[in-house]
Automatic annotation (TrEMBL):
GO molecular function, one term: transmembrane transporter activity
UniProt key word Glycoprotein: no
Compartment list: Cell membrane
Domain of life, source organism: Bacteria
Origin organism lineage: Bacteria, Pseudomonadati, Pseudomonadota, Alphaproteobacteria, Rhodobacterales
CC terms in the record's Gene Ontology section: plasma membrane
Protein name: Major facilitator transporter
Keyword Transmembrane helix: yes
Native source species: Thioclava dalianensis
């Protein structure tokens, strides 16, 4: 056991950074009604605080690979942990919604360097055939956070106030910094690469404008015309970035990586699938607390069941992928995840028998897809492409989460308006969540259609038991396979 622990100390150290991110996101979602009451704002307005973190993260992730190459991955990782911890402290002392939104954005800036650079360190110290298992070590401890986080966060909020949910990041960051200093290999020689300043400005403007515009829809903070205008400006900036990046050697997000089919599917298919993850992050706590009228602790425990299902299956996924391959496993799991979310529309009481199975099965299916796409996107990348590939994957992950939160918020707003608005009692109508769960669940089958583009042999190099080896061939997958 201790030998295995020592061998995987780098993935486990990186997992601590993911643990902070996931605990932070899960706890905030659970405490939304309490925070909204204390700050004197509508509950749905808190999705701006959730989205601000993801917007800032997505905006600065594109430069993470360049910064890691230029200044050293280990140094950048330690600095990012420090920024995240300091921003967490700022979140804990806020008294207004705008202040909380700004502090959350600073957290996102730290996370933009922390998570992708940590993954980059793992990838650079892991054999290709072990990437899937390394990703399990990276993400498995982090799933403990969402499994226990809602209950833990609800308990902290109940007995110590909501500010304690941010202060918990401080000791976690200190531990991660200590482990990094002790166990991670020293940085090699810096890699001198030109910095695409205009490309960064276009990508940051595009991501911030588009995600802010989408997140503000239904908030009544901005007129809907301004929200749509921001969204349009963001999309235009991203299109200009994409056209400019074609064929550039210094592109922060290199479009040429999409010539690899596995990377294409690991990014685009992942974004479609992760929309449901962001949406559920907002829907479940509101559904339990403001429709089923559960207490915050019960709500946290129920949300935790979704993550508990993920934890229970995560260690088995590499063996399943070794046995059956990526394509059938990803398609089946994506469909099951979608059906589980749609099934939540049938729940109208805590006593409904299907509630617990739907949460656990949905979490297990989600973990299966996440493990698969976290590995498959790297199947055909060369050593020189991993930095920009990691930045691309991290950016797309956070973009899809923010879009999922915005999607769920807009659907709820429209559904509530359609049934006559929020009653004086403050109980959100069940019919609004029926629409929200059905719309969100459709993302599972849609992503499965994209996963179906995989062909036999794709990502076999990530499997310990490979069909090519049975036939006597030991050739790893090559970029030409994506043609």
């Amino acid at each position: 056991m201790f030998k295995t622990l020592r061998a995987n100390i780098i993935p486990l150290t990186v997992a601590l950074s993911l643990l902070m991110e996931l605990v932070d996101a899960t706890i905030l979602a659970t405490a939304i009604p309490v925070i909204a009451h204390e700050l004197g704002v509508p509950a749905l307005s808190l999705k701006m605080a959730m989205a601000a973190y993801l917007i800032a993260l997505a905006a600065f992730v594109p430069v993470s690979g360049w910064i890691a190459d230029r200044f050293g991955a280990k140094r950048v990782f330690i600095a990012a942990l420090g920024v995240f911890a300091a921003a967490s402290l700022l979140c804990a002392v806020q008294t207004t919604l705008p202040g909380l939104v700004i502090a959350r954005a600073l957290q996102g800036l730290g996370a933009a360097m922390m998570s992708p650079v940590g993954r980059l360190i793992v990838l650079r110290n892991t054999a290709r055939s072990e990437i899937t298992r390394a990703m399990v070590y990276v993400t498995m401890p982090a799933l403990i956070g969402p499994a226990l986080g809602p209950v833990f966060g609800a308990t902290l909020t109940t007995f110590f106030g909501w500010r304690a949910i941010f202060l918990i990041n401080l000791p976690l960051a200190a531990l991660a910094i200590a482990l990094t200093l002790r166990h991670m290999p020293a940085d090699g020689a810096p890699i001198a690469k030109p910095f695409d300043t205009m490309g960064f400005l276009l990508s940051a403007l595009g991501l911030v404008a588009a995600m802010t515009g989408l997140s503000s829809l239904g908030e009544h903070v901005l007129p809907w015309q301004a929200s749509l205008g921001l969204t349009g400006l963001g999309v235009l900036a991203l299109v200009l970035y994409w056209r400019r990046a074609q064929g550039r050697a210094d592109a922060l997000l290199d479009p040429k990586l999409f010539r690899y089919r596995t990377f294409d599917i690991g990014v685009i298919g992942s974004m479609i699938f992760r929309l449901s993850n962001g949406a559920v992050l907002l829907l479940l706590p509101l559904f339990f607390q403001l429709t089923l009228k559960t207490g915050i602790v019960v709500s946290g425990a129920l949300v935790g069941l979704n993550a508990l299902g993920a934890v229970s299956v995560r260690a088995l996924v590499p063996r399943i992928l070794d046995r059956f391959g990526f394509k059938p496993v990803m398609i089946l799991a994506a469909v099951l995840r979608g059906l589980a979310i749609v099934g939540l529309a049938s729940v109208s009481s805590l006593h409904d028998w299907q509630l617990v199975p739907l949460l656990v099965i949905g979490g297990a299916a989600q973990a299966t897809v996440f493990t698969s796409i976290n590995a498959i996107a790297y199947a055909e990348l060369g050593a020189q492409e991993i930095s920009t590939g990691t930045a691309f994957i991290a950016m797309s992950r956070q973009l899809s989460l923010a879009l999922g939160i915005a999607f769920a918020g807009v659907v709820l707003e429209l559904a509530i308006t359609a049934v006559g608005g929020v009653p004086a009692s403050g109980v959100l109508p069940h019919s609004a969540f029926v629409i929200g769960f059905v719309a969100t669940g459709l993302m599972g089958p849609i992503s499965a259609l994209y996963f179906a583009r995989l062909k036999p042999g794709d990502a076999d190099g990530l499997r310990r038991v490979q069909p090519a080896q049975r036939a006597g061939s030991h050739e790893p997958p090559t970029p030409e396979r994506a043609a």
